[in-house]
């Protein structure tokens, strides 16, 4: 744990200066949105015939991957297309080695101006070293470390366990324990280590240093492992380290939208909370409304649970959507008899076009 709050803008600026001394182009940006704009501007400036990338949660969070997948202006060499089987993905990644423009993230950046990665296949690091004419790297401020030893420590304690957590079914030691081990697993993700001390030719690589923590919410459960193990956490804003005097019972809630990593789950006792029954839901609703027309409530509840019973609806409406819908029905002065016929304000309950289409098919 750190004992004082880092001055992040000064730290980023110092890192950028050292990177420039080593031949890299380095730019500090305020947040992920600015990084995304700078990345798009760079693509437009370079006007590449082809673009490829190494998988990175920070890069994905800019939205650029989905934009390129859905666009047609550039040849997008997508070696991570989920529609392709893995052997075909690897063939596509080989083509990406000679794309005109390559973008990815980095595991650590030292204040001395060097870059550090670990990789399983090598498709993320090889194009950085040689191949594409232009390379753009994104790094949040949490990736900046003081020394090479700190970079190695970050990879072992944070990056490695977090990265393997994204690979469903992997059973490496770090996937099970959340801690790095020098394993000999065929699923090992840290097969290669790359230190990049200088950029050749100078200016080929642009490093965007982002003054916020990388957006990687899928990895948040693994980020908690350190705090849960040490029973302490540091608050940079107040320069305080909060330590538990007695080991508490920690209750963590999660919805069913994302799979939690094995290393996290093995530390938990799981308790499933079922969706409220109609009787329980009525009690919840009455907490939110002082007075509510009984006929309106009855018809709305019937329609709500009917929608949740439709298997083809992917994002089923939740309690919060029901509360919002009841408010819309009340403010709109909707006749309760209308609700079963056409489900007014359906867009409050269903947030995907295909779910609304599924509802309409069932109502015909």
How would you describe the overall organization of this protein?
This protein has 364 residues and is α/β, with parallel strands linked by helices. Helix content is 43%, strand content 15%. The strands form three sheets. A six-stranded parallel sheet has the order 1-10-7-4-2-3, with helices on both faces. A four-stranded mixed sheet has the order 8-5-6-9, with helices on both faces. Strands 11-12 form a two-stranded antiparallel ribbon. Helix 12 (294-308) packs across helix 13 (319-331) and helix 12 runs parallel beside helix 14 (336-342). The longest helix is centred in the middle third of the chain and has 18 residues, at 148-165. It is globular, with a radius of gyration of 25 Å. The model is unreliable at 1-5 (pLDDT under 50).
Keywords summarizing the entry:
globular; 16 helices; 6-stranded parallel β-sheet; 4-stranded mixed β-sheet; 364 residues; alpha/beta
Could you provide a short overview of the structure?
The protein has 364 residues and is α/β, with parallel strands linked by helices. The protein has helices at 8-21, 32-46, 57-61, 64-70, 86-96, 126-129, 148-165, 173-177, 220-230, 262-265, 278-288, 294-308, 319-331, 336-342, 346-349, 353-363; strands spanning 25-29, 50-53, 75-77, 101-105, 108-110, 115-119, 134-140, 144-145, 192-196, 205-210, 232-235, 240-243.
